[in-house]
Amino acid sequence: MIEKSKSPHTYSPENLGDLLSLYKSMPDALVYGGGTYILKNQKREFLSLPENVIYLKRVEELNRISRTERFLEIGSSISINRVLSIGKHILPAALYNCLLGVGTPGIRNLATLGGNICVRDRRMDTFPLLHLLDARVELRKAGGSRWIQINRLFDSEGKASLQPGEILTRIRIPFDEWNVQVYHKLGSRAREGETTLSFCGLAKTQKGVINDIRIAYGCLGKQILRNREIEAELSGLKVPINIKDTASAMELLKENMDKIGIAISNFQKKRAVSFLRLFLLRLAEV
Fold it and tell me: Are residues 197 and 244 in the same domain?
């Protein structure tokens, strides 16, 4: 409920051109998609919003899904449930499982993929996995547009790299042949803390050899954890991975977690190592 005395000016553009022009003229406006994260963090009895709110749901271009032989392209205002409706035979399996874990069905009807990516004070569920999948995002403003890798959307300190008047409009996910795709989430994102952790693992194997392997952890505030040294050590190994190489990878992960500037609890460290071990065992099933 919104107090009448504090009701914001709400704008609902219907096309991308009007949206970008409007945002250029009001760079301090709140860009509002599904609003689930905004509502979750309201602490007052009445909904508190800034003076100007730009509502995205009616912008036609942000509600499109397209598919080519090489990639899937999703508008930033598409709800999580609508992304899921694309189907598990088209979406990468790990991404499908990840999206199923985003809130309740009611939340997934409101929450948008673009909103899940763009939360500024933490990296939400989809971000680590889209990073591993080499997803790209389109950023547009009045008079210009650019595509960037999703991992460049935020800097090492978690600050967004959006330019003034710029809005995320599309997410492009390449189709690739990952033999093994794993996504696990421990705990609840709504209560993120020392007992929450997500794990994303992708691998390609051919004739019993690992050609490519990618591993990332989320639910760690503004950062994600990815160790390319571990990936390089595992690439080229035969599966099943022997005990010595498995132990070496787990030790590298422990060392990395002790060195990086991310607050990780002992519980999260133990679970991170356990998730890695289970993922490496899974490779033997291919």
Answer: yes
Domain that holds residue 146: 61-174
pLDDT value, residue 221 = 87
Peptide bond into 240 cis (omega under 30): yes
pTM given for the model? 0.91
How far apart (Å, rounded) are the C-alpha atoms in residues 211 and 234?
A: 9
Is residue 4 domain-resident? no
- Contacts of 202-205 with CB under 8 Å at 24 or more apart are 202/94, 202/132, 202/133, 202/178, 203/178, 203/179, 203/279, 203/283, 204/176, 204/177, 204/178, 204/179, 205/179, 205/180, 205/239, 205/283, 205/286
- Terminal-to-terminal C-alpha distance of the chain: 53
The answer to the question of residue 83 being in a domain is: yes
Confidence label for 3 from pLDDT (cuts 50, 70 and 90): very low
